[in-house]
Amino acid sequence: MSVYEEIISARDQALSSIQNVADLSNLVDLEPALFGKKSTLGSLKGLMGKLDASERASVGQALNQAQKEVQEAHQQSKKHFLEHERTLQLSAEGIDLTETLRNPNHRGHLHLVTQTMERLEDVFVGMGFTVSEGPQAESDWYNFEALNLPEAHVARSMFDTLYLDLGERTEIGDGEGGEATKFLLRTHTSPVQIRVMESQEPPIYTVCPGRVFRRDTADASHMPVFHQIEGLVIDEGISFTDLAGTLNDFTSAYFGGAIKSRLRPSYFPFTEPSAEFDITCVICEGSGCQTCQRTGWIELGGCGMVHPNVLRNCGIDSEQWTGFAFGFGIDRLALMRHGIKDLRDMYTNDVRFLSQF
Ligand code: DAH
Q1: By the 8 A CB rule, do 7 and 66 touch?
Q2: 319 — phi, psi (to 5°)?
Q3: Which listed residue, of 119, 150, 205, 322, carries a Cα 20 to 30 Å from 111's Cα?
Q4: How far is the CA of 179 from the centre of ligand 1 (A)?
């Protein structure tokens, strides 16, 4: 066999072994036999020194050509296997999103908490309120200071706060950040009161629904992330009876005429006087059951007359304007209304649970 025939035969052998490879790891195993010193083409290269000078150039050229063909076939094969592996991986990890198309009668719907939030907004809008929103990440000023809760205030311990590290920033959202350098996830919707009073002239009649955060471990009645709705009224001649009347009207409009509200004295730094408000137990309608611990009442939220310091912090003249505020949890409301035992069920997103509402 001439040296040229040997080169052709070595090339063909290499090409057919590439063709017979079953997967990428086989191909990698084959590489020394294709390109190594001891490969057939490699050992032919080793013979070059023994050739006549006249033959060396053309044999070298033939060898290079053969090697190039083997390299190209190897590259092709490698590309093919890589693409194949990727296709397999994608189809294994893929999620079939066509299910609802296959069953046109099955449609999703809003989450129970969103439904509750929207109904609350509807009722308040029907009573003449606007809806306001604010950022979920807040500065210490909006969440605490402006609400008459200075740094050392004992009432800060009511709120298990999650602080944020925002580096050098001194402001959040489009309001004034003041001197604040500390940032946090808002622990209540009350900071939205401040943002509204800062940006709007009284009279103000608004509700502020939204997501709030506390450093709490999830259990049947607590979640680290939950929802509140805040109400704020600022006008001339607003008194405590307006607060009591508004809450009572809201309660009947939302739950139906049989459900009333009552106030109990309490304390919040941002209101004076402050109260907690209860509503007739929605399960037993006041006759006493397990949910209301046989009292006929369930606690809904806090309220009071906006503290003059809070008005002053927002540049509102507390001699001319007075107002009230209230706030309560939305998740708990939905929980009670539907007799749900465990708050966590609302967030594990099991369709069998969600589809009931
Ligand atoms: N922000 C209070 C909380 O999260 C609830 C609250 C109490 C809101 C009294 C108010 C209020 O507007 O006047 O516990």
Answers
A1: yes
A2: -80, -40
A3: 205
A4: 24
Cα separation, 101 vs 109, in Å, equals: 15
Sequence-ordered alpha helix ranges (H) in 52-150? 53-93, 99-102, 112-126, 140-143
Question: Could you give the 3-state DSSP secondary structure of residue 235?
Answer: strand
What φ, ψ does residue 188 adopt, rounded to 5°? Answer: -160, 175
Instruction: Fill in the amino acid letter for 188.
Output: H
Six-digit token pair at 201? 């002239």
Residue 118 Cα, ligand 1 centroid: separation in angstroms? 20
Residues in the chain: 357
Write the residue with the smallest CA distance to atom 10 of ligand 1.
326
Atom 12, ligand 1: residue with shortest CA distance: 326
Give the mutation target among 230, 277, 307 for probing the ligand 1 site: most ligand atoms within 8 A of CB.
230
**Separation CA 149–CA 134 (nearest Å):** 19
CB 145 within 8 A of CB 156: no
Residue to mutate (ligand 1; options 270, 274, 314; most atoms within 8 A of CB): 270
Residue pair 162/182 in contact by the 8 Å Cβ criterion? no
The secondary structure of 16-70 as a DSSP string is HHHHT--SHHHHHHHHHHHHSTTSHHHHHHHGGGGS-HHHHHHHHHHHHHHHHHH
Summarised one tens digit per residue, pLDDT across range 162-209 is 999 876 666 665 445 445 468 999 999 999 999 999 999 999 999 999
Residues in the ligand 1 pocket, defined by CB under 6 Å: 188, 190, 230, 268, 270-271, 301-304, 325-327
Q: Which atom of ligand 1 is nearest to the CA of 327?
A: 8
Q: What is the rounded CA–CA span in Å between residue 345 and residue 224?
A: 14
Do the beta carbons of residue 278 and residue 299 sit within 8 Å? Answer: yes
Give me ligand 1 centre to Cα 302, in Å.
Answer: 5
How confident is the model at residue 171, as a pLDDT? 63
Ligand 1 atom nearest to 270, measured from its CA: 13
Model confidence at 47, in pLDDT bands (50, 70, 90)? confident
Instruction: Yes or no: say if 274 and 282 are a contact pair by the CB < 8 Å rule.
Output: no
Q: How many CB atoms lie within 10 A of CB 350?
A: 9
- 95 Cα–ligand 1 center, Å: 43
pTM, two decimals, is 0.70
